[in-house]
From TrEMBL:
Cu cation binds at residues 104, 109, 144-145, 153, 158, 299. Belongs to the multicopper oxidase family. It comes from Kangiella sediminilitoris. It comes from the Bacteria. Its EC number is 1.7.2.1. This is Copper-containing nitrite reductase.
Length: 466
């Protein structure tokens, strides 16, 4: 009699598969690709959550004209977002696609156990491994491949996030997004076209060519920008796969109302920039109050403007001139009287008298505001910043230059036969500075000559009601 009962119990345990302590309702996990996040968990009990995740090696786009063989969880970088509840039991099935050249495994930082599941999940191409774990601690956790050479598997894109919601859930917000930073190391330097192989030397030197959100340059800009409406609350689940670099995560034009520090329980408020370690995370919540483009960056700022770590949230809705006025006026500031205008070396002269002055003053504006991107002689940077030297786009209609400075410029354009699809932020320059800098450009580097006037600039400002 006892023997028979034992046998039955064993059979049930096997049917409910390995590791189940008691019988929980079974459900399939909803997995999402970045920047999407699975819906909040509504159930008030625990479940046995079945996760099916596949490792895939495939060619993807790192930047315009640049391809890379990504290794991924679920076919995207970062990998599929997994969402469970504190106390859930997770039955994990890791499949390695038959076309893979490498074995892979998974180390989930949410696992309490050896290697975070790495050894139990080691999977050859064309195989599936299964293991189970209990989500003991709530938090936002990184997962990654931990197959040797570990650094190489992570550098190729094998990381993602798993959220273990606390028992009581997280406060409701209007929108949730999944953003994960990673650094990449390629044989060619940033923007060099073609299929770029992984560069182990650079990876060891921590000399990244690309630092990006969600696996590629432009994954969160232009048509891929995140969206929100004025008055909504936004939550970003931010991860950092590394392999090497720590992220100083910042959103230009926004303040984080709440940061769940390092993805844990501790909440900090009114934060400008939060540190996201390699192999770590943060949850940031904020309300958007005014329309415009919020820019996500790693505030190690060369990474944002020269290596790709730049994303966007396009906020639409009503202006609130009390929260943010826009430019109200622009008066000449002369703390030391008009003497400033004739200071030795004529550093600051209020007005250009003629074209020669404009060109001279325009060069200073250029060096201080444009050179960093468009380069010293207007030659630009392939794939990233279009040339201003002999630019057919600009010479055809210099008003485009005014528009680019006043309103910013984004989306696909063609300059001298080369396509660009990037973001130039609007620049806070006054009408004289804009007239001067564009006149300087028109009269430099083989451009067609001519002059841009303050009136031209004012016309553009008025067109869009500025
Ligand atoms: Cu791997």
């Amino acid at each position: 009699m006892w023997g028979k009962k034992l046998l039955v119990t064993l059979a049930i345990a096997t049917a409910a598969s390995v590791g189940a302590a008691k019988t929980l309702p079974v459900e399939d996990a909803i997995l999402t690709s970045p920047p999407n996040v699975p819906p909040a968990i509504e159930r008030d009990h625990n479940a046995r959550v079945v996760v099916h995740l596949e490792t895939v090696e495939k060619v993807g786009t790192m930047a315009d004209g640049v391809e890379y063989v990504y290794w991924s969880f679920g076919g995207t970088v970062p990998g599929s977002f997994i969402r469970v509840k504190e106390g859930d039991e997770i039955e994990f099935h890791l499949s390695n696609h038959p076309s893979s050249k490498m074995p892979h495994n998974i180390d989930l930082h949410a696992v309490t156990g050896p290697g975070g599941g790495a050894v139990s999940s080691f999977t050859a191409p064309g195989h599936t491994s299964t293991f189970a774990f209990k989500a003991l601690n709530p938090g936002l956790y990184v997962y990654h491949c931990a197959t040797a050479p570990v650094g190489m598997h992570i550098a190729n894109g094998m990381y993602g996030l798993i959220l273990v919601e606390p028992k009581e859930g997280l406060p409701k917000v209007d929108r949730e997004y999944y953003v994960m930073q990673g650094d990449f190391y390629t044989k060619g330097k940033y923007g060099e076209a073609g299929l770029q192989p992984f560069d182990m030397e650079k990876a060891i030197d921590e000399d990244a060519d690309y630092v990006v959100f969600n696996g590629s340059v432009g994954s969160l800009t232009g048509d891929n920008a995140l969206t929100a409406k004025v008055g909504e609350t936004v939550r970003l689940y931010v991860g950092n796969g590394g392999p090497n670099l720590v992220s100083s995560f910042h959103v230009i034009g926004e303040i984080f109302d709440t940061v769940y520090i390092e993805g844990g329980d501790a909440k900090n408020h009114n934060i400008q920039t939060t540190l996201v370690p390699a192999g770590g995370s943060a949850i940031v919540d904020f309300e958007v109050q005014v329309p415009g483009n919020l820019i996500l960056v790693d505030h190690s700022i060369f990474r944002a403007f020269n290596k790709g770590a730049l994303g966007m949230i396009n906020v639409t809705g009503e202006e609130d001139k009390v929260v943010y006025s826009g430019k109200l006026s622009d008066a000449i500031y002369q703390p030391e009287g008009s003497a400033v205008q004739t200071m030795e070396g004529d550093y600051k002269v209020a007005k250009a008298e003629n074209k020669e002055d404009k060109v001279k003053f325009g060069k200073r504006v250029y060096d201080a505001n444009c050179k960093a991107c468009h380069q010293a002689n207007g030659e630009g940077v392939p794939q990233a910043f279009p040339p201003l030297a002999e630019s057919d786009y600009f010479n055809e209609d210099p008003v485009r230059g005014i528009e680019a400075i006043v309103h910013g410029l984004e989306g696909p354009i063609k300059v001298n036969g080369e396509s660009f699809n990037s973001v130039m932020p609007a620049m806070k320059l006054d009408d004289d500075e804009i007239a001067n800098v564009l006149t300087y450009i028109l009269n430099s580097w083989g451009n067609k000559g001519g002059e841009v006037t303050v009136e031209d600039v004012q016309k553009v400002r008025q067109q869009k009601g500025h």
